[in-house]
Design brief:
Length: 315
Amino acid sequence: MDIEIPVYLFSGFMDSGKSSLIRETLVEGDFGEGGKTLLILCEDGEVEFDEQELAEVNTELVMIEDEKDFTSARLKELQLACQPDQVFIEYNGTWQMATFLEMDLPKGWILVQALATVDATTFEMYLANMRAMIMEQLFAADVVIINRCDDDTPKGKFRRAIKALNRKAQIAYERKDGTMDENDMEELPYDLNQEIIDITDMDYGIWYMDALDDPKKYEGKKVRFLALVYRPEKMKKEVMVPGRFAMTCCVDDITFIGFKCRYEKAAQIPHKSWVTVTAEMKHEFALEYKGKGPVLYALDVQPAEKPEDELIYFS
């Protein structure tokens, strides 16, 4: 029987807290107890690892500082030389994630968890100026830890930016004192208690992500919004998808987002036409979601003018 060697990938920009997280996990969390750990560092982090501490938790540290040296052959050499029971990789924040994700790993190596760290004090600046580069480090993460948070951290904005690109990611918030911030709720820009909730173009992304995250919250709620109708000929006659094109990361990542909508006159709505939809939201099973999710039941659909800016944004 082949032995499986778990691999833990840590990504994120320089000084985002990767080294600290690895040290907390290996040294303080006794994660390395009972086996040998190979720790591969692809950059010099903000925290220097103490050789004595690593020796005490049976961890061997190896540096690979040049992306051209981070190869399948090099990893296989390390497997033969170190014979680890588990592998930790602190990935370089400027390297392409595909370099690792598409790599032929040594026999037995299994990527079991990808974690990414974000510095809350610089994330907003990176989103504004280096969005594609920083999101490159987050799109494959199972867990994203946003650290150095305080009361003014725009957690809702950060969550939407990450979830728009990586819906499966779990997001955790850590305060500057190292404690976990469980209060990640944000005030919505619309009133859920209105008879009909008007979703503006500015709020469409917030509504879309919030409804995906917590569809039960919207059960029975009525919403009204401007949408582009997706309804190709093969679609069932009483189904359409009203939605919007959204920029999730950069121009290359524009995608159409919308919810399944049942409407008895859907067949009369032209494909790619602009409409104002008033609908009741339900949380129910849909094949398109491969499970339960938000489903709209249109109450009224009216022709509408194309907006000046057809895109919506998640920030």
